[in-house]
Amino acid sequence: MKADLLHAEVPGLATPLWLRTTETMLERMRGLLGSTPLAEGEAMVLDACNMVHTVGMAYPIDIVFADRQGVIRKVCPAVPAMRIRGCLRAKYTIEMAAHEAQRRGWAVGMTLGFLRTRG
């Protein structure tokens, strides 16, 4: 798993975001399961993923789904354990600390420029 400092290109916002990126199918399947809670300003990006679960999670997370162009299609705030969330139009799933998406002002329709460059 890699960690990179990336900036979300959202109008009026230029706050840095530390991203953990998954490199293997196993890492994608595991996601944040078994990890310590993400700090403010951290997130995990799951590529080629449009559905996630929080089975076994010890803390709630925000789940953001974005399409191939980086456009946010769905925001699921503070999802507790034992839930499933998905978005058929998504190519990327971003897992963040609970309420982090709201702190950043992320909403459906916004474009996250760092995703557009990923392919």
Tell me the overall shape: globular
Number of domains: 1
Spatial strand order of the main sheet: 1-2-3-8-5-6
Largest sheet: 6 strands, mixed
Supply the CATH superfamily name.
Answer: Protein of unknown function DUF192
- State Rg: 13 Å
CATH C-level name: Mainly Beta
Mean pLDDT: 82
SSE order in H/E notation? Answer: EEHEEEEEEHH
User: What would CATH call the architecture?
Assistant: Sandwich
Task: Describe the oligomeric state of these chains in a short phrase.
Answer: single chain
Structural class: mainly beta
Low-confidence stretches: none
Instruction: Predict the CATH topology.
Output: Jelly Rolls
The proportion of strand residues reads 35-45%
The share of residues in helices is: 10-25%
The total count of strands amounts to: 8
Number of helices: 3
Features:
two-stranded antiparallel sheet, globular, 37% strand, six-stranded mixed β-sheet, mainly beta, 119 residues, Jelly Rolls
